[in-house]
Each structure stands twice: as structure tokens, then as C-alpha cells.
Amino acid sequence: MDKEILIKEILEKVLNNFGLTIQIRLEKPANPDFGDLSSNLAMIAYGQVSDKFKSPREFATVIIEKIKELDQEKIFEEITIAGPGFINFKLNSDQLLKTFSQKDKSKEIELINLGLGKKAIVEYSSPNIAKPFTIGHLRSTIIGDSVANLLEASGYQVFRDNHLGDWGTQFGKQIVAIKRWGNEEEIANAENPVEKLVALYVKFHEEAEKDPSLDDEARLWFKKLEDGDEEARALWQKCIDWSFKEFATIYEYLGVKFTENNGRGYGESFFENMLQPLIAELKEKGIAQIGKEGAILIFYPNDQLSPLMIAKKDGSTLYATRDLATDKWRLENPRYQNADGSAPLVVNEVGGEQAFYFQQLYLAEQILGWYKKGQRVHVKHGLYRFKEGKMSTRKGNVIWLQEVLNKAKEKAMAFTKDEEIAKAVSVAALKWNDLKRKSDADINFDWDEILNLQGNSGPYMLYAYARAKSILRKAAESEAKPVENGDFEISALEKSLITSLDEFNKAVARAASEFSPHYLCNYLFDLAQIFNSFYNKYPILNSSLERQFRLQLVEAVSSTLAKGLNLLGIKTLEKM
Ligand code: ARG
């Protein structure tokens, strides 16, 4: 059982004796010499018992006596008072050692069973066809993949979907541009076909400013596309294939996969023929109405939110129409239903700039009775801030993701001569940089921070793991020394390592239930730091009495780091 919970139980009992109920919080003292855990409860509760005790310190003394009476399992080795009334707890080494070696035997992850028997769809990446795969899509890919892993680890059956932007009126413009100024062969053979398509799209906008009839032409071509015109369909399909050439390389590089639609994900176009019936249904139910300008909109009760447009005046559908159709289809598809027929959890990992839109979408789906509160979750990510500023497709000053990936790898070559290792290090560096802070925060993109071996970085984490593995390898190779028996003291650092190892499940559970991988990163970084201090301070292979115990610690650290990093989508390296 988690030590903290046990200690809190004892403290609650003691406080109850005094007729007190307060929220108990335990802190880790910055200096482990002061104890393993510390509490300020005597100071907080003193106001309520000041008639009985002269000072918080005196109150603390009495509390400590009571704790000692109740501590039958001898969890505590020493309990002391510090300062104005802090209570510092030193945990009993034998007890810790006993529970630690028991724990090690059951290696499985026993998490809170948040999602046991339930289903979840996690949708991430979702780039647009014929547009660059942006940094935003990179963030979505990394964070979404990790959220999916975390939900899987807590019992959910997870479906990984990619909501590709492969439909919409922009394809009319793209087709016109290809037909007028493009060379299909040249695009197909280009190293980066999307770059060519984006250039054509930019040209369309430049030309249309001079000649507005181009916009009519584009509308016509989109209509043809909708009506199944052969030429329109063929060009559109080519755009998809050209784009996928790039997407597939990126996913392969990042080691990210999708499970739906044969690993491609269900793009917006998949829902095309469900759009008109959906609009009719919403109109019939009175949820959507024709607005003043002739468009069809969803109006919210009491105007809680501004209306959501689902069809333009000319009848064409929008992003929102396709999302509604997607979520209805998911709801009705037995593949995604829970055993009791209820709706799955559906998570969209999409940039924070779409937060308002997702509020509108979720509220509409709630009003429709499709999903309940909490069954739809928007995991938001913030922006990367480069010196160049935010990027824009229209103007063409784009930061190409491939360039970022290449540069990351190039920089990682500073650590190693091995291409494969450099690749793994660079991916770990980028992923960790994205996952280590709250996902909705903006990131000042800084190569030095991302690759810093001394700091909170992917390479630092990989290095801690590789170091642990190297000790274990050496231990296996070195001649087995006879195990010496005898008493030894567990040091404060070793104790905090044990306590920290105990907290893995809690960290995973929190990260999963709050859709926030950064809680796991914080935990793992903490663990790696304690491990590194331990490694620098104590001999492991050359210790006699402690050798076996310390190797057990190293083993536990390495397997915990590996489990954690894998949940973040980061592949560990045995050597670096
Ligand atoms: N393709 C969209 C974009 O690049 C993201 C799609 C997000 N998912 C969704 N269901 N709307 O902005």
C-alpha cells in the first residue's frame, strides 16, 4: 500500500481524537536529512485547540506521542519537531526494504482502473491534405499518441483515429490551380509534393485577387467534386496520395500509428454522404434553423454560445457539419459502443485556438442527447514560438516540419556517430519537450533546452535509463561475488528513491485521468534526478553488503523509466 495513504490514515485518527478534521498534506522536505516526509498540520490546526496547548510546538509534541501509540506496523523510525511546529517523519528502513522487495516481485502495472471495460476514441494529428504538416499537427501527434497510451494503460480499449482534412471548398481552388498552372508529373516526382501544392494554392489566391472569376471557377470544381465528376475526383485523390507520402514518413519517423480505417484514419471526406441527411435531421428536430442571411445554423438555448453554422447559403457544408457527422457515426457504430450500449469517450487533440469551436460542438452534441458531459474531451495544445512568428499557409512563409526533424537529428549527431541512435535521441528530445509541460502552454522553441543533457530533456531521460542498464549489464558480466549478509543502513537518498518508485502508478493515473502527460514527465524527471544523485554518491558494483539491494534499486528504476517513457511514446536506448 502507498505509504502516504497509510500515514494520512494515522494522522486522521490522531486529529479525530482532538475532534479535528482538516485536510492533511504531506510534503517532501527539500533536504532528505530532515526526514522523508513533513507536515505543517500542527500549525494549521492550532487555532482550534489553542485553549488546550500553549503553542503549536507543544501541540505537535502531543500529536507525535499519539502517532507513536498508533504506529503498530512501525512505519516510522523517528518523528521530530522542527521550527515553529513542523512535524518531520523519518520512515523505517527495514519496513521500506521489506515492502520494496515484495513490490519488486509483482512487476505489473496495477493502475486505478479508470477505463476498465470501457472504450475510448482518441483522435490526433489530423493534418490537412495539400497543406503543410504543421508544428501544430506535430504537437497533436505527440500529445495525442501519449494520451492514447495512458488511457490504454488504465484499462480503456483505445481506437486511434486521424481526422484528416481531406474535404472542403478549398479543393475547388486547388484543382483549378493544378489545372491552370501545375504540372502533375513534376508534382508527383518532387521530393516534397506538398510544397508544390502549397505554392499553387498561394498562386491561386494571388491570381484571384486580380481576377475574381477564378473563385467562381473554384466553386464549380468543388461542386463537380461533390457530384462525383471523374476528373475532379482523380485530381483530389492524387492530392491525398501526394500528401500521404509526406505524412507516412513523419509517422514512421515518430513511431506513431493509427488503428482506424486500416491505419489511415477516417478523414472528413469519409462522412460526405452523411452530411445532407444530418442537416435534414437537425432541421427537423428544430435544433438547426435558417438564419437571416440564409445559412443554416445551430442556435443554443438562451444564446449561451454564438450560433454554429452547418451549411452556407449555397448549401455547401462546413468543418462543423463534418465533425457532427463523424461523432454521430461513432456513436452509432457498434465497434465503438461500450458493452452496455453507451457512448465511448471521444478525445480530440487539437490546438487551443479551436477551443471555442469545440465548446460549440460539444454543447450541440449534448443538446442532441448524443454524448453526456465528460464523454467529449478537447485536449488543447499551445503554439511553438519561433523567432519567425506564427506561420501562415496563404502567404507561403511556412516552417516545414521535415526541416525541424532533420535539424533535430543533425543536432543529435553531437551525441553519437550512430545514425539510428541520433534519430532516436532526436525524436525523444522533441517528444519530451512537448510533453514535459502542460499541453496548452505555448513553447518557446529552444534547441539548447531541447537537447540539454544536464537538464529536463529527452536526452537526459534516455541517458539516465542507459546508465542504469549499463550498471545492470556490468553486474551480470562481473563475477558473481558471494552475497554477504549483514545489517546496513539505508541512506536518505535510497529511501527517497524507494518512495519515488512507489509513486509511479499514482503519476500514471493522474496523467491519464486528466489527459495530461506532463504529470508523468514531472514524475519521471524527479525519479531520474534522484537516481543520478544516488548513482553519483554511492558505489553500486563495488559495495559489499549493499550491492544486492542497490542493484535491485537500479533494476526497479530502469524498468520504471522504461514503462514511463514508453507511455510517452519514447523509445529507450540500451546504450547511448
Ligand atoms: N484538420 C484540422 C486542422 O488542421 C484539425 C482537425 C481536428 N479534429 C476535428 N475533429 N475537428 O486544423
Cofactors, ions, other ligands:
arginine
Broad CATH class of the domain at 458-567? Mainly Alpha
Lateral strand order in the biggest sheet: 5-4-9-10
First-to-last CA distance = 36 Å
By CATH, the superfamily of the domain at 458-567 comes out as Isoleucyl-tRNA Synthetase, Domain 1
Low-confidence stretches: 389-396
Number of beta-strand segments: 12
Radius of gyration equals 29 Å
Summing up helix and strand content along with how strands pair, one would put the structural category as alpha/beta
Mean pLDDT: 91
Shape: globular
Q: Assess the beta-strand content as a share of residues.
A: 5-15%
DSSP helix fraction: 40-55%
CATH topology of the domain at 458-567: Isoleucyl-tRNA Synthetase, Domain 1
Describe how the helices and strands are arranged.
Layout (H helix, E strand, L loop, with lengths): L2 H15 L19 E3 L1 H9 L6 H15 L5 E7 L3 E6 L1 H13 L13 E5 L11 H19 L3 E5 L8 H12 L2 H6 L3 H18 L2 H15 L2 H25 L20 H10 L3 E3 L5 E3 L9 E4 L7 H14 L12 E7 L3 H13 L8 E6 L2 E2 L15 H12 L6 H17 L7 E2 L2 H4 L7 H20 L14 H11 L1 H10 L4 H20 L9 H21 L9
Parallel strand pairs: 4-5, 4-9, 9-10, 11-12
Antiparallel strand pairs: 1-3, 2-3, 6-7, 7-8
Helix pairs in contact: 1-3, 2-3, 4-18, 5-19, 6-8, 6-9, 9-10, 14-15, 17-21, 18-20, 18-21, 19-20, 20-21
The structure holds arginine.
